[in-house]
Amino acid sequence: MDLKHVLEHHILDEVWFRLPVFNGLMPWSKHLLMMLIAAAFLVLFLPLAVRGKLGILAKGFVEAIVVFIRDDILEPNLGHVGHAYLGYFCTLFFFILVCNLLGLVPYGATATGNIAVTLALAMTTFFLIHLAGIREHGLVKYLHSIVPAGVPFWLWPLLYPIELIGFATKAFALCIRLFANMIAGHIVILALLGLIFIFGALNPWVGLVVTAPVSILLVLFVMCLELFVAFLQAYIFTFLTAIFVGGAVHSH
Amino acid sequence: MEKLLSPDIGLSIWTAVAFLLLVVILGKVAWKPIIQALEEREHALKAEREATEAARRSAEELKAVLDRELAKVQQRTQEMLAEAQKEGAAQRESVIRAAQEEAARLTEKTRAQLEGEKNRLVQDLRKEVAGLSTLAAEKILRKSIDASVQKTALDEFFRDLEKNKTRLES
């Protein structure tokens, strides 16, 4: 078993079987299971935490994040219309966060480290941007407002495709950012652990006595970093979504 | 490893469905209660803050009123004190003047009495002296007037009488 197999096992999705519908389009896989575990956890944990059944700490944690999302993410970007989207953004944050953290649990896998998952999340953001814009301005006015005000009419054929590409780019960037951040830590950890075996192949004692402690300390450090990145990326995805939706809602 | 960058569209659909369902479910069971609780708490805090503010403002108004009253009272006291001082001074002045007048009157009266006494004494003395003089003169006269003197005096008297008689007749 070489490093490639280990990496693939840890990073890639493992499709157990495909449902016999839509030409076998729908898989039943490890990442889907992780996602469902995350969703089930949220559905069980959040209502209890919110009602204070899990102690003041859990309640305070959830409340602090909700207040933060409301006052520091939605309020500056969306203004007063932001409150209507608070539930969506809170769900987005907690879903990404729990999926990220599940990757750090033994036997867990990072669903958000799968480009199909981040693509879907980015697409929901993409649609949310336009739905929020249409809801705020109406379809015609929103389509008109995609191009900045004051642009001469003859520039529209040029600018409209550019703006549309901009939307796609934003969604694509969201997708890649989350995906890359979530697998990067795992790859680094596996590479560091791989060092032990490389040096161990030279001399078993060097691998055990010299490389192993250093590698494990570094892995511990990267794990802490990953814990931080799990929160950071959930925040960034939520924050950027708020900025993009705010741009559509408060377009000129 | 090529699978890393080729998204499984089926999983994407699962993700989207799961996520949107999660949005709906959590919106009902988690976010609605917490948002309501937060808003209630914030409303309560706001109401409390406003009540505190109102209480503070009314206390300040009361204080201003009391300060004004106090200033008025102090001013009144000052005025009354000044008036009392003035009155006291005037009274003292009048008492002193009355005393001085009384003293002057007494002095005058005493002097007048003394004067009267003196005059009376002088009068008495004069009377006494006159009486004594007369007495003395009488004694002297009685002693000096003897027969010859009487005769001479009588003669002179008669002569004068005669002279007067003739003059009257002529």
Please, could you describe this protein's structure?
The complex is a heterodimer of chains A (252) and B (170). Chain A is mainly α and 252 residues long. Chain A is 77% helix and 3% strand. Chain A contains 8 helices and 2 strands; from the N terminus they run H-E-E-H-H-H-H-H-H-H. Chain A has a two-stranded antiparallel sheet with strand order 1-2. The mean pLDDT of chain A is 85. Chain B has 170 residues and is mainly alpha-helical. Chain B has one domain (11-169). Chain B is built from 2 helices and no strands. The longest helix of chain B is centred in the middle third of the chain and has 136 residues, at 9-144. The radius of gyration of chain B is 68 Å and the shape is rod-shaped. The interface between A and B is large, with 49 and 33 residues.
> How are the strands of the biggest sheet of chain A laid out side by side?
1-2
Provide the helix percentage of chain A.
over 70%
How many distinct helices of chain A?
8
Distance between the termini of chain A: 58 Å
> In one word, what is the shape of chain B?
rod-shaped
Order of helices and strands of chain B: HH
Beta-strand percent range of chain A = under 5%
**Residue runs with pLDDT of under 50 for 5 or more positions of chain B:** none
Computed structural class of chain A: mainly alpha
Low-confidence stretches of chain A: none
Q: Please, what is the average pLDDT of chain B?
A: 88
The sequence of SSEs of chain A as H and E is: HEEHHHHHHH
- Total DSSP helices of chain B: 2
Radius of gyration of chain A: 22 Å
User: How many domains of chain A, as an integer?
Assistant: 1
> Would you count the extended β strands of chain B for me?
0
Average residue pLDDT of chain A: 85
Number of strands of chain A: 2
